[in-house]
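Duplicate of #3305? Posting structure anyway:
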């Protein structure tokens, strides 16, 4: 992790915190971390050996990133994990969003506690092949704010990696907080020696989100993490016409629900309309959205996930969107993205066999 000047940009000749000249070279002058670097212990971090040993049983590690909060990153992480588990993979989901741990709710695990054995901390299991770890399991009160500085956050991430007994995993999905801050630098640094397969970046279509996603792509390129693809989430509100409520203005401007009358009219006059899915853009994508950005930056575009109220409901209820038919607008799109990723990456033959034979 490089030190940084007060302006926030790391000096190009920063010696790095592990260097013998850390905090002492000319380039360190004026850096707010100068004293910390000068007095910090030097040499390799012994915990990295313990992390490497733990991660030796994990075949693939995928980071889920976003430039901004509120774009559906954790929802995507949760549904990706559900999907991989339903394909009979052994899956771990690690939530390193220390200040906003929403994964326990999205997996239906609120109120669960972490247990410890002689092998280490045990993940909380949704199913026998889907384990979860989050700071959310450690809070005495779910409404309590986590007010931690960087070093303490980084210490917990390190502890999750070296002390959690994941066992044999096909995939470890890491749900990171938005942005490119301490947590991101730490997870890359801690996992670098064991190999990170890459990152999936989640965005919404409008420029105000894509501006920050460009920074996320830049971060990945700088730290040597492959961008597996970009997902454009909330790409237009899409749901069956029969799921809409129809309203009209009343005599005094109030909203009057006329849904039943409209649906009855459709059934009588045009029943074929009842099979339609309605779509409208929510965010401005006139600049080309994530697909255009991916082309400009030379990274893969995985596709668009519509803003599906049923997917939102599944996340709120902590369940997989692939169970049943309620998420019939979004589930097929997510399934296609995941199967495409498995095939394009050509992860080992056993896994490809799972992808071909299994059903989400």
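Output from current build:
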């Amino acid at each position: 992790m490089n030190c940084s000047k007060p302006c926030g940009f790391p000096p190009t000749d920063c010696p790095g915190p592990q260097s013998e000249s850390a905090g002492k070279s000319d380039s360190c002058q004026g850096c707010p971390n100068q004293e910390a670097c000068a007095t910090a212990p030097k040499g390799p971090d012994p915990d990295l050996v313990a992390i490497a040993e733990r991660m030796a049983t994990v075949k693939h590690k995928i980071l889920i990133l976003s430039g901004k909060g509120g774009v559906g990153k954790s929802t995507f992480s949760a549904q990706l994990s559900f999907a991989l588990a339903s394909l009979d993979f052994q899956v771990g989901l690690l939530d390193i969003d220390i200040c906003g741990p929403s994964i326990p709710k999205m997996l239906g695990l609120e109120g669960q506690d972490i247990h410890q054995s002689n092998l280490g901390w045990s993940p909380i299991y949704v199913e026998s092949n889907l384990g979860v770890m989050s700071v959310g399991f450690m809070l005495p009160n779910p409404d309590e704010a986590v007010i931690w500085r960087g070093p303490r956050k980084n210490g917990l991430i390190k502890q999750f990696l070296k002390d959690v007994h994941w066992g044999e995993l096909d995939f470890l999905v890491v749900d990171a907080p938005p942005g490119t801050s301490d947590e991101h630098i730490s997870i890359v640094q801690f996992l670098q020696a064991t190999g990170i397969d890459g990152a999936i970046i989640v965005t919404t279509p409008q420029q105000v989100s894509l501006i920050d996603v460009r920074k996320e792509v830049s971060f990945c390129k700088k730290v040597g993490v492959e961008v597996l693809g970009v997902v454009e989430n909330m790409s237009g509100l899409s749901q069956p016409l029969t799921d809409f409520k129809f309203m009209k203005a009343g005599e005094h401007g109030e909203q009057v629900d006329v849904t039943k009358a409209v649906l009855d009219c459709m059934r009588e006059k045009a029943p074929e309309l009842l099979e339609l899915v309605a779509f409208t853009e929510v965010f401005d994508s006139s600049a080309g959205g994530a697909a255009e950005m991916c082309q400009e930056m030379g990274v893969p575009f995985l596709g668009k996930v519509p803003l599906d109220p049923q997917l939102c409901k599944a996340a709120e209820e902590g369940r997989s969107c692939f169970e049943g038919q309620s998420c019939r607008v979004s589930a097929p799109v997510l399934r296609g993205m995941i199967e495409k990723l498995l095939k394009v990456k050509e992860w080992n033959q056993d896994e490809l066999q799972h992808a071909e034979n299994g059903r989400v």
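Confirmed duplicate; merging threads. The CA atoms of residues 216 and 222 lie 10 Å apart. DSSP finds twelve helices and 14 strands in the chain.
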